């Protein structure tokens, strides 16, 4: 936007006339006269003090919308609210949008057009950080712009007091107007807390406690369930602001992390019925002739006693729910009323009771979110082993473990979480492909091994290791072997063409701040990193047309190629699949590699313009080009069937990345399947290393020759790994390798332990001892750790304490350790928090629980994982009871008052603000500097007697001893050049300028 110009001292322009006069009289002759004129005019203009103003006029409005759970259905109005505000913008006005949840999210910076689509900006609704949102709004406002902030919220802030942020805005002359979403003035009953033991061993029982509270006198039902089974229930009479504790007992039937669900039932209806019944009885007893007040009071006393009993609570429950049970309960109640107070009062009362019961049920709890809570308990399961196989049936491996006396559970392949894994000491993955575990499941396995002391055994086969998609996966991170491609072990060269969807959907961010495009780029980069100097790669980015990022290039130096691919950015639009396939295929048609393969990356919900892809893929197949698809999304997305058909017709595969973070692994998996088979299917003898008998505790079982196997997975041992046996094929590779990783252990069994073709292995006397020894080693032998880890929660604060065993001082760490907070569902790096020493051998750290997800703290000391109890918030911070705290409506009013804003009832005239003065820059100093530069230039021109004609002549003069000068001609139509000879210096030194100037002066005299 071009700046406005105005003068602070406009009367100074009157100096223009004397300045021009002085120039005309004394300075208009000679060299540099125009420079002198310019300097004079600049000085006059500077004296008028011109000022430049950017962004003058209009104002900025930042709308802060509370998207937390407590707003409920009111959040559905936000889109319409933004549309209404956006339509009020006039020239110079700008609208910004900040979304408020557990943290602030900028949905739109101040813009003159457009409003954001709120569904594109997910917000964690488990909190209301009002102060953070106001500070974020302040950061969007530019100096020199008049502005206003408008916030729609209920004021139930869960962070720091927002009034300080409002005051800061007010001090900056930025008022905050508030639209208050008022909560109903109804009672609030809540679950304050749930108390469970830290952890238990399987078979132990415990007594837990639940604390309830209400701000009204009411009766509430409650229930506690575990694994969908109700283990305790009842009702409780709650008195205003008086915490009440109910207890329950349980003996958990299984190991792992168990979740207990506590609910405060719809007793609000039952309590309401009780109060209405009491009022109706008193009212009717006083208004009905002949009714005895004393009888009514005696009935109320009996009624209160009945309500307090379990039978009475059950009756109230039946009254609060329509159906036959309610009718039976009313009839029973009326029988009591008629017998104690007479049929006249009973008839009137029955009609009133049914009217109360038939009223529509409305929400009578101010914050229903805290009527349900969850608590977790970790149950240790001893030395149990989980074997996961294809169909979950017993195989030779599971039977061998049972024959060795181990407790074994068998499960079909599928996802696993930390809550499942903590029930076991060892996990055996028996030919389970990585895709069956999903990325969150693989991350849970890796954290369980590395941080929680689990033991992992991965067995080999055609569906495991590299062939099973474990390269670049979290599981590979904890294995003692790697699965990369090595050029010396490959038979054929590969030419790969990768075409990446860079449409608008790829702009969406993921949890760690990267975008889907960034992860797709990393996937393509992982392909380049796996290829070798004999291979070629081409990369295209496609939206409505293909864009060449890398033409088909030999991968001699992968680093610059990778850097180029990592710089691809999303540019909007959709992906045109046909154009993508056509451009990528052209790269491969003339390639001479033994394998030519095309990889299409596309959004399974946004793959457009298929064109005549059927004939195109048919032509590719005829010349030996195969095609696979890596799809962002799931098989249920709108374009998934089309992409599956592309892979099928291209004689390739399709892999769905249900979470974007899985893209690098899927690209690597596709490369490994194309570039070489990581399964060596040739018979190979096994050769044991000397240490295996010592490590597995059975030296005699492994003496003598080992059998041959039908094949093995090609892997490479890590630097710290212990190789127990080698497969002596071509090339030789580890058959058994193990290592310690963090607080756990893992074993890579790179052979198929249940392959019918490996008869010699299955009939070998060392088969069962080998399997049992491997699993026992992975389990760690049950050695006790050098200390104990405990955790205690108080509100949102979690205190984790580590106490080390003085008898094992030699195992104590030299520096304070870090506690790992492991939780399910995360695929980023585990959160680690350094602990502080509070005494000799004692450490402590306090962390804030951000949400209601369960977590397990753990510390690794000298290869031992010390695992604490599972903990979680009972419900989201948004649902915390606010007893004794300032009501949200008052908080919102204080925000408006402290910032100089107002409490609004609507969003009209939101841009009715003072016009922005803009960003002002005084130009006088710049003009003075320019005048000084031009004055110096004038001096230089005058001293050298330069003119525009002179400059042209000097530049055009040839490098010779003659100077051509144009002399007047008798004819006006022609000019005759006159040549003036300049004597040359015999010494070869160029003549001084004075000689040239003198010759020109003499020539002018002759004229």
Describe this structure in words.
This protein has 27 helices and 48 strands. The chain is of the alpha/beta class and 1007 residues long. A nine-stranded mixed sheet has the order 17-16-18-19-36-35-34-30-31, sandwiched between helices. Strand 35 and strand 36 form a beta hairpin. Helix 9 runs antiparallel to helix 10 and helix 11 crosses helix 23. The longest helix has 21 residues. The chain is flat and about 120 Å long. The protein starts with a strand and ends with a helix.
Quick recap of the structure?
This protein is 31% helix and 28% strand.
Nearest-angstrom radius of gyration? 41 Å
Instruction: Estimate the strand proportion.
Output: 25-35%
Low-pLDDT residue spans? 951-994
Number of helices: 27
Mind describing the biggest β-sheet? Answer: 9 strands, mixed
Measured between the Cα atoms of the first and last residue, the distance is 58 Å
What fraction, in percent, of the residue positions are helical? 25-40%
Biggest sheet strand line-up = 17-16-18-19-36-35-34-30-31
Shape: flat
Going by helix content, strand content and strand pairing, the class is alpha/beta
The total of beta strands comes to 48
Mean pLDDT metric: 84
Question: Topology, pairings included?
Answer:
Blueprint: E1 4-7, H1 16-27, H2 33-47, E2 50-54, E3 60-66, H3 78-87, E4 94-100, E5 104-111, H4 130-139, E6 147-153, H5 163-171, E7 176-180, E8 189-195, E9 199-201, E10 206-214, E11 218-226, E12 229-238, E13 244-250, E14 256-264, H6 267-287, H7 293-307, H8 310-319, H9 324-341, H10 343-358, E15 372-380, E16 385-389, H11 396-403, E17 408-412, H12 418-421, E18 426-430, H13 434-450, E19 455-459, H14 474-477, E20 481-482, E21 494-501, H15 516-530, E22 536-542, E23 546-554, H16 558-566, E24 575-576, H17 577-589, E25 595-603, E26 607-608, H18 613-622, E27 625-632, H19 640-649, E28 654-657, H20 663-675, E29 679-680, E30 684-688, H21 692-696, E31 708-709, E32 712-713, E33 716-717, E34 722-727, E35 733-741, E36 744-749, H22 759-762, H23 767-779, E37 787-794, E38 797-804, E39 818-823, E40 831-834, E41 836-839, E42 842-848, E43 855-861, E44 864-867, H24 888-899, E45 903-904, E46 919-922, H25 924-944, H26 948-956, E47 962-967, E48 976-981, H27 993-1006
Parallel strand pairs: 3-4, 3-6, 6-7, 7-45, 9-15, 16-17, 16-18, 18-19, 19-36, 21-22, 21-25, 24-26, 25-27, 27-28
Antiparallel strand pairs: 1-2, 2-46, 4-5, 8-10, 10-13, 11-12, 11-14, 14-15, 20-33, 22-23, 29-32, 30-31, 30-34, 34-35, 35-36, 37-38, 38-42, 39-40, 39-43, 41-42, 43-44, 47-48
């Amino acid at each position: 936007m071009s700046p406005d110009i105005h003068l602070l001292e406009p009367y100074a322009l009157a100096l223009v006339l004397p300045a021009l006069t002085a120039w005309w009289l004394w300075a208009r002759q000679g060299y540099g006269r125009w420079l002198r004129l310019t300097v004079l005019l600049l000085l006059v203009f500077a004296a008028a003090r011109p000022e430049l103003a950017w962004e003058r006029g209009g104002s900025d409005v930042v709308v802060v919308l509370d998207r937390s759970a407590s707003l409920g259905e009111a959040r559905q109005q936000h889109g319409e609210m933004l549309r209404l505000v956006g339509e009020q913008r006039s020239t110079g006005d700008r609208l910004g949008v900040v979304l408020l949840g557990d943290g602030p999210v900028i949905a739109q910076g101040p813009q003159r057009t457009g409003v954001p689509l709120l569904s594109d900006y997910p917000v964690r609704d488990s909190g209301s950080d009002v102060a953070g949102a106001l500070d974020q709004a302040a950061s969007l406002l530019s100096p020199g712009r008049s502005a206003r902030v408008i916030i729609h919220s209920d004021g139930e802030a869960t962070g720091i007091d927002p009034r300080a942020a409002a005051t800061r805005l007010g001090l900056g002359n930025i008022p905050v107007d508030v639209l208050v979403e008022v909560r109903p003035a109804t009672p609030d009953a809540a679950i304050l807390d749930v108390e469970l033991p830290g952890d238990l061993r399987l078979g132990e029982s415990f007594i837990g406690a639940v604390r309830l509270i209400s701000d009204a006198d009411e009766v509430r039902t409650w229930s506690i369930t575990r694994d969908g089974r109700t283990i305790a229930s009842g009702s409780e009479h709650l008195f205003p602001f008086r915490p009440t504790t109910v207890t329950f007992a349980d003996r958990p039937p299984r190991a792992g992390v168990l979740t207990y669900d506590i609910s405060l039932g719809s007793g609000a209806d039952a309590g309401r019925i009780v109060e209405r019944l009491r009022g109706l009885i008193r009212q009717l007893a006083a208004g009905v002739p002949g009714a005895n007040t004393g009888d009514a009071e005696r009935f109320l006393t009996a009624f209160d006693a009945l309500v307090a009993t379990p039978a009475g609570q059950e009756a109230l429950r039946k009254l609060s729910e329509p159906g036959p049970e309610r009718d039976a309960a009313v009839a029973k109640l009326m029988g009591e009323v008629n017998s104690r107070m007479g049929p006249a009062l009973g008839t009137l009362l029955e009609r009133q009771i049914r009217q109360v019961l038939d009223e529509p049920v409305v929400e009578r709890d101010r914050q229903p979110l805290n009527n349900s809570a969850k608590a977790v308990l970790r149950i240790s399961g001893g030395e149990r082993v989980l074997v996961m196989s294809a169909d979950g049936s017993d195989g030779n491996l599971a039977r061998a473990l049972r024959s060795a006396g181990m407790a074994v559970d068998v499960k079909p392949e599928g996802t696993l979480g930390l809550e499942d894994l903590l029930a076991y000491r060892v996990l055996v993955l028996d030919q389970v492909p990585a895709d069956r575990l999903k990325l969150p499941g693989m991350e849970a396995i890796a954290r369980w091994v590395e941080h929680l002391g689990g033991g992992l055994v991965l067995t080999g086969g055609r569906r495991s290791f590299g062939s099973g998609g474990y390269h670049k996966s979290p599981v590979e991170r904890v294995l003692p072997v790697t699965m990369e491609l090595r050029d010396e072990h490959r038979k054929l060269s590969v030419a790969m063409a990768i075409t990446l969807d860079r449409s608008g959907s790829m702009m969406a961010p993921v949890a760690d701040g990267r975008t889907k495009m960034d992860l797709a780029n990393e996937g393509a980069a992982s392909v380049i990193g796996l290829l070798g100097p004999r291979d070629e790669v081409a990369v295209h980015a496609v939206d409505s047309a293909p864009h060449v990022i890398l033409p088909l290039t030999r991968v001699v130096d992968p680093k610059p190629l990778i850097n180029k691919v990592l710089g691809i950015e999303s540019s909007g639009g959709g992906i045109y699949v046909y154009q993508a396939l056509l451009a990528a295929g052209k790269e491969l048609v003339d390639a001479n590699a033994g394998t030519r393969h095309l990889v299409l990356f596309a959004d399974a919900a946004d793959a457009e313009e298929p064109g005549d892809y059927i004939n195109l893929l048919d032509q590719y197949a005829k010349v030996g080009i195969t095609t696979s698809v890596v799809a962002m999304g799931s098989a249920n997305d709108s374009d998934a069937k089309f992409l599956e058909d592309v892979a099928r017709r291209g004689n390739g595969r399709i892999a769905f990345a249900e979470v974007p973070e899985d893209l690098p692994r899927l690209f690597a998996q596709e490369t490994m399947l194309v570039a070489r088979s990581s399964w060596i299917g040739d018979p190979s003898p096994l050769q044991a290393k000397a240490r295996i008998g010592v490590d597995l505790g059975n030296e005699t079982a492994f003496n003598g020759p080992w059998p041959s196997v039908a094949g093995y997975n090609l892997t490479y041992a890590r630097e710290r790994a212990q190789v127990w046996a080698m497969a002596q094929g071509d090339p030789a590779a580890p058959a058994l390798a193990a290592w310690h990783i963090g607080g756990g252990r893992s074993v890579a069994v790179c052979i198929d332990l249940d392959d019918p073709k490996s008869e010699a292995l299955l009939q070998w006397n060392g088969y069962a001892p080998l399997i049992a020894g491997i699993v026992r080693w992975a389990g760690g032998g049950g050695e006790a750790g050098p200390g104990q880890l405990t955790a205690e929660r108080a509100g949102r604060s979690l205190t984790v304490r580590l106490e080390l065993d003085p008898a094992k001082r030699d195992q104590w760490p030299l520096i304070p350790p870090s506690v790992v907070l492991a939780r399910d569902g995360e695929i980023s790096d585990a959160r680690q928090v350094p602990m502080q020493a509070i005494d000799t051998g004692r450490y402590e750290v306090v962390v804030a629980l951000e949400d209601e997800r369960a977590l397990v703290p753990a510390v690794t000391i000298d290869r031992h994982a010390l695992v604490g109890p599972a903990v979680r918030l009972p419900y989201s911070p948004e649902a915390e009871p606010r007893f004794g705290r300032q009501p949200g409506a008052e908080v919102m009013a204080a925000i408006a008052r402290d910032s100089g804003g107002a409490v609004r009832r609507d969003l009209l005239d939101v841009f009715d603000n003072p016009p922005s003065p803009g960003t002002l820059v005084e130009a006088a100093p710049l003009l003075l500097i320019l005048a000084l530069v031009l004055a110096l230039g004038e001096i230089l021109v005058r001293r050298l007697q330069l003119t525009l004609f002179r400059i042209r002549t000097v530049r055009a003069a040839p490098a010779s001893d003659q100077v051509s000068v144009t002399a007047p001609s008798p004819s006006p139509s022609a000019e005759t050049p006159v040549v003036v000879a300049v004597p040359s210096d015999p010494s070869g030194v160029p003549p001084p300028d004075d000689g040239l100037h003198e010759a020109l002066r003499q020539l002018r005299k002759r004229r």
